[in-house]
Amino acid sequence: MARFLQEHLNTRVTVEAWERAMRVPWKVSAPNHGFLLRTEQGEVAGAYLAFYSERRGRRICNLGAWCVLPQHRFHSLKLLKALLAQEGHVFTDLSPSGNVVPLNTRLGFSFLDTATAVAPNLPWLSPRGRLSTDPAMLEGTLRGDDLQIYRDHVDAAAARHVLLTRGGRHCYVVYRTDRRKNLPFFASLLYVSDPDLFRALRRRFQSHLLLRHGILALLAEPRVAGHRPRLSRMLPNPRRKMFRGEVAEEEVDYLYSELTCLSW
To answer: Which domain of life is it from (predicted)?
Structure first.
């Protein structure tokens, strides 16, 4: 499956990276890694990845990369139907391509509010608060659910971890690097544990992105960040994200998913 996806979907992602993404770092009893479509000769003609997790008493199936060879596209829907036929799961699709969106809609998926602000990362001087990416600091500071999230994602290939602190408060941030118009200069927020503190220390976070990683802009969904950053503009066509199942929109986040496991 990994070699097929590397050859036919995204050559920037190595076979090893595809294989690593499929071996999620968190503990879960996964029924599969998705489904394959094979020809009568046994050759792979299509693949649909799936990332499983168990959260808040629910079984989650995050739909990942989907690729079918052109001459077999007539059978593409078989892969999606095989995934959705798994009872007892909430399904998320956090990176559907344009032609998948209307298909998901017909199959009962709903849209998440993905309104997205893009803000320039500038070398702001901010005397307030501290920022750390030290694993020992994260491990020693985080507690409860945030500590478990960190431990589950510390080896996830696409997840980057930052701890913001001020006084006795801390904010745990998970983000990933992203491309826009094929330019790899963006960071997308995936999780913010304390939106109020993040708002107060956001400039320090953005300075870190620019000066340490050369990331020029922050992509922030207000539903994740808790606010729209100053000096930002709203994207006219933000990327769609969708879900299906017995779950409220506010309970759907981007952890334990393809977004934390695969960089593209």
So the answer is: Bacteria
* Same-domain status, 31 and 15: yes
State the residue range of the domain holding 80: 2-112+257-261
Q: Which helix (H) or strand (E) holds 227?
A: none
Residues paired with residue 68 on neighbouring β-strands, in sequence order:
46
DSSP string over 82-96? HHHTSTTEEEEESS-
Residue 183 tokens read as 């330019």
Same domain, 52 and 158: no
Q: Is the dihedral of CA 17, 18, 19, 20 positive or negative?
A: positive
Q: Is residue 99 part of a domain?
A: yes
Q: How many Cα atoms sit within 13 Å of 227 on the Cβ side?
A: 12
Task: Give the chain's domain count.
Answer: 2
Secondary element (H or E) of residue 38:
strand 34-38
Element (H, E) at 186: strand 183-192
Q: Supply the pTM of this predicted model.
A: 0.95
Examine the domain organization and report whether 144 and 197 are in the same domain.
yes
Q: What per-residue string of b and e applies to 179-215 under the rule 16 or more CB within 10 Å gives b? A: eeeeeebbbbbbbbbbbebbbbbbbbbbbbbbeeeeb
Any domain includes 108: yes
pLDDT digits (tens, 9 = 90+) for 202-236: 999 999 999 999 999 999 999 999 999 999 999 99
How does pLDDT run across 57-101, given as a tens digit for each residue? 999 999 999 999 999 988 999 999 999 999 999 999 999 988 999
